[in-house]
């Protein structure tokens, strides 16, 4: 069972990175020539590093049944609810000057493919909704519950992809960077995603 609550960042997508971006933009515009060369664009973008532009909040219900083994009698069941925040965007730290082409007030940038940057599931968002034990069975141990949560986290990585977070991150990233480059003075902007990267744990 998966419930989705979507938060699409506006302007800026993440407050702290975009503040850094604005500071760099001011410095760059103060001393830039009529059209910045690619290395200066890289200098402005790289400090943003992992630029998260889309955030999903996913709620998952984890069910587990343990019927025991030949040396145990009875079964036990557990129901856990958990909520995780999934963030997606691009890693601008990999951007190189060779990925950027500048011609007057036109610019083309090859960006890394959007990836899921993180899945954050705080302990406060994990709750045991129910636990049923037969008379001869012991409760689920902390280690067993942790193993269930690790499995749930992996499933949430996949759920984020299936819910379209990578596509939305691509759309949002284009909007954010397009506005940024317009402020640099570019009038024609082309952003492509010809530089795929591996998704962590994906």
Question: What keywords describe this structure?
Answer:
202 residues, alpha+beta, 3-stranded mixed sheet, 4 helices, 8 strands, rod-shaped, disordered C terminus
Assembly category: single chain
What is the number of independent domains? Answer: 1
Taken from the alpha-carbon principal axes, the silhouette is rod-shaped
Q: Report the count of strand segments.
A: 8
**What structural class results from the helix and strand content?**
alpha+beta
Please provide the ordered H/E string of secondary-structure elements.
Answer: EHHEEEEEEHHE
| Count of helical regions | 4
Largest sheet: 5 strands, antiparallel
pLDDT averaged residue by residue: 75
Indicate the low-confidence ranges by residue numbers: 1-33, 197-202
Textual characterization of the structure:
This protein has 202 residues and is α+β, with helices and mostly antiparallel strands. It has one domain (2-195). The protein is built from four helices and eight strands; from the N terminus they run E-H-H-E-E-E-E-E-E-H-H-E. The protein is rod-shaped and about 80 Å long.
What is the topology?
Blueprint: E1 2-8, H1 15-31, H2 38-45, E2 50-66, E3 76-91, E4 100-103, E5 106-112, E6 115-120, E7 126-133, H3 142-162, H4 165-183, E8 188-195
Parallel strand pairs: 5-8
Antiparallel strand pairs: 1-2, 2-3, 3-6, 3-7, 4-5
Gist of the model:
The chain is of the alpha+beta class and about 200 residues long.
């Amino acid at each position: 069972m998966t419930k989705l609550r979507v938060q699409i960042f506006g302007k800026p997508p993440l407050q702290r990175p975009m503040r850094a971006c604005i500071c760099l933009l001011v410095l760059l515009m103060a001393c830039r020539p009529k059209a910045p060369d690619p290395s200066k664009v890289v200098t402005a973008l790289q400090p943003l590093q992992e630029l998260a532009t889309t955030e999903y909040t996913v709620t998952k219900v984890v069910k587990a049944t343990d019927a025991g083994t030949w040396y145990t009698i009875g079964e036990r069941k557990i129901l856990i609810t958990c909520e995780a925040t999934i963030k997606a965007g691009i890693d601008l730290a990999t951007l190189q000057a060779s990925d950027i082409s500048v011609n007057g007030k036109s610019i083309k940038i090859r960006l890394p493919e959007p990836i899921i940057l993180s899945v954050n599931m705080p302990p406060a968002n994990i709750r045991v909704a129910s636990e049923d034990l037969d008379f001869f069975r012991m409760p689920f141990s902390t280690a067993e519950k942790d193993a269930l949560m690790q499995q749930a986290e992996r499933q949430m990585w996949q759920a984020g992809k299936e819910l379209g977070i990578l596509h939305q991150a691509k759309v949002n990233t284009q909007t954010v960077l397009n506005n940024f480059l317009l402020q640099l003075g570019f009038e024609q902007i082309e952003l492509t995603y010809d530089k795929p990267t591996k998704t962590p744990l994906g």
